[in-house]
């Protein structure tokens, strides 16, 4: 009984799929042959950006000239091309950890992979903010505290927060962490939360008068109405490995 169940579950240990996929019956489903589905999830090369949101159209038409203008009005960014438009090649990313996540189903174990990736331009854009006051961030049992340090000290931290702080453009900082820091996901999220809270503090060098103007949607209403055309965009989901 157990042998039959093991044979039906999959052709190899781990339960990544059905038994048919592991055996390879000559229809292109085998592990070592017949993979004719083509590339998955690849980005299209040299394809012109066609914005589908109001914010995207304003950015492409150079009505908005920086990310800070978008954040000033708390406008949601729904297109990744907007970030690429302003930051471009200055963005750097680093994979912190990739771990499998298994889910028990009636057909066996269903395995997916979870990745933790840090991204930033080393100039203040990772969690938006740079300040010299202690802030704390929390995720799960992990509590991370950022403490200002004298110039030249560097970043005194564990490897995971150090990568995020470096990508944020922070040069000198002490860190303190409590809780189960071995859980990399919570450790990284707590650090990101602490960095994001630095944006809520205004240091004396930021005490300048801000003249509030109309929202870009109100200021450029005529432009949006004039250049608006219907754009049909076919959204295709990224290919996901089939599971039984």
Explain the overall architecture.
By secondary structure, this protein is α+β, with helices and mostly antiparallel strands. 28% of the residues lie in helices and 19% in strands. It contains 9 helices and 6 strands; from the N terminus they run αααααβββββαβααα. It has helices spanning 2-9, 19-23, 54-60, 67-72, 80-87, 159-167, 184-197, 216-219, 221-227, and strands at 92-105, 108-120, 135-139, 142-148, 155-156, 173-178. A 4-stranded mixed beta sheet has the order 3-4-6-5. Helix 6 runs parallel beside helix 7. The longest helix has 14 residues, at 184-197. Mean pLDDT is 70; it is low at 5-24, 32-41 and 127-134.
Please outline what is shown here.
With about 240 residues, the chain is an alpha+beta fold. Helix content is about 30%, strand content about 20%. The radius of gyration is 24 Å and the shape is globular.
